[in-house]
Amino acid sequence: MSDLNVVGAKDGWRCWICDLPVDPDASVNSDLGPSVDSFGADRGKKSNAGAIERLAHRQCNTMKGKKAPVVPWGEGLFIAEPAPIIETVERLQRKGGREVVGRCPGKADAVAVEEWLLDRLSRLAPDGNFSVEIKEGGGQYLIALRAN
Fold first, then answer.
1. Do 61 and 100 reside in the same domain of the chain?
2. Residue 71 lies in a domain
3. 18, 39, 47, 103 — which has fewest CB within 10 A?
4. Is residue 22 domain-shared with residue 57, that is, in the same domain?
């Protein structure tokens, strides 16, 4: 496992799961204290080969062991039927291609979702190469995430 300070500095001291700041001086025993998480590790295997070490709050990391982590969509975004971000990103990184992640009622809403999603993915999957497509049709705007 890597040094907590190295992983924290690489991730800008933000939790990869909830995207909130992590206090580097907080106790590692505190719920909001820093911890290193092996993102992308295969569950049930002894080796974490291929896993990416990411910074997480201790509480976020602990809860991830009980249930699949959920990256919440940004507050104030007007998006219907949003797809689960982590599962979509993992699938696209593995297989490539394009997936619809939601729909918006207006162009301004779609652009706001596009900007937020690209910003969030720059921290969630910094090594990923993603683009967002906005397709108009049927009085709404489909938002698709593409792995480039």
1. no
2. no
3. 47
4. yes
Residues 6+ apart with CB under 8 A from 13: 21, 22, 23, 24, 34, 55
DSSP label at 65?
A: H
Residues 103 and 51 in one domain: no
- The reported pTM is 0.76
Cβ-based burial of 112 (10 A; exposed 0-12, middle 13-18, buried ≥19): middle
The residue segments making up the domain with residue 122 are: 85-147
Q: pLDDT (tens digit, 9 = 90+) per residue, 24-49?
A: 999 989 999 999 988 665 545 555 55
The answer for 13, left when phi > 0, alpha when psi is -120 to 50, beta otherwise, is: left
